[in-house]
Each structure stands twice: as structure tokens, then as C-alpha cells.
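thought: fold this chain, then report.
action: predict
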Amino acid sequence: DPSALDLSVKGRSDLINFWDLRLTDVKLDLKMKDGRLFIPEFSSKPYGGAVLASLDMDLTQQNPPYTMSLSLEDIDLSKLAPDTDFKDKPVSGKGLLKSNIRGYGKNPETIKGEGFIFIKGGSLWEIPLLKGIADLLFMPNLSSIVFDEVSAHFAVANNAISTSDLKLHSQSIGLLVEGSVFFNGALDLLVTTSISENFAKSTSEFERLAGALLAEAGQLVGRIKVGGTIKNTEYKFMPFPIDKILKDKVKELLGGFF
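observation:
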């Protein structure tokens, strides 16, 4: 009976492989007492950055409740990518993530939480969602764009990760992403795009792009609905004319980015 254990363990390792990820300089502090599993510190220094996590779980209950915190700082995405599905892809940037999660046992439908993500100097166009948007915009040269900043607050609830303020900013293009990615892979996202008209004019597809988007304050602005699943993603332009909601989004993009 694990709940009857009374122990305290501290460990350290130069390297641990976890789901193909290489965690270096690992430190673990684990305690069990009165049916409570408590990890006040799990730390590592992978990929040029730092990871810090903690866990508190009540093993006396049949469906153990738990709380978990996770912090990632200064993770070098170019070093991380080779150990993921993005190996051999030009993915780069420095990433930060903070999150707090709670739930019960192995039931994903009970997971709730919140967090924040920030990436600086991000070359991210090989990520499937962004690659699909670039294709829809007839602008393959978007792959050369490096985002100065990427940031989002997110919430975890109802079998999904949701956001209302995922912003990707560069001097040439800004994206605002709202909606949810569900645990089963389903997507329900709305992407507001704002592309510098000067940048768009430098592409070979300016006429097609201008026909699909709306000119607003020196920007070409549009909305893209992203549905389907992560494996089979569907993209389509949302219709115009602009309504009050879209005007607010344009104002937010232009005010926040340009």
C-alpha cells in the first residue's frame, strides 16, 4: 500500500532521458508521509535553460487529487528541437513557461489550471499551425520571418487548452490567436492576421493576398478559422465586411504591435 509508506529521498543525476528529452543536472527531493506524496523540488538545466517543478498528491483517496507547478526558463528551442518531431527543422528562440495544474488521478477531464508562455526571437514557421497559415496566405517567404515576441496566457479546463491572447509579433506580420486545442487533437481557433502592406507588396502574391484581406491603416488584415484536428488541420478565411469585433481585434493588433 503506497499510502502507508514513510520515506524521504533526495537524488541527483547528470543526465536523465525522459520521453526522448535530455534532462541534465537533475535534482529530486521526494517525500511520502501519511499517504501524501510530496515533491517540493524537481529541477534540471536542459537545453541552455532551467526547469523547476513540484507535485503534491494525496494517495489516501481512490482518485488522488494533485496539484503541480512547472516553470521553464530560457529554454533554447534550437537545442530542444533535435529531440522532438521538429528535428532538422529551423526552429529557434528562447522560451519561458509558467503553469499551475490540478486534477484527480488519471482522469484528464478533471485537469484544470492556468499559465503563461513567452518566446523571444522565435523562428517558428515550421510549426504545423503557422506553416498552414503561411500557405493559406500565399506567402511562402513568411518562413524567413523571426518573431520578436510570442506571448500568451492560457487556461486548462474542459479537456482543452484555451487562450484569448496568443500574440505573435514581428515588424512585418502580427497574429492574434484565440480559441482551444482539445486533448483529443481537435482544433477550434480564430486567427486575426495583420500584415504590413509594404511587406506584402514585396511578395509575388500581393494581388491575390490583397484580394483576400482588408486594407486597414497600412496593414492587410483578415481572419482565419482553424478547425479539424492537429493531424488534419483545416484553414479558411472568414468573410467580410468588418464588424465591431474584428475592428477591436485590428485595433489590438495595431496598437500592440505597430
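thought: worth noting. The first strand starts at residue 7 and ends at 18.
final: C-alpha cells above.
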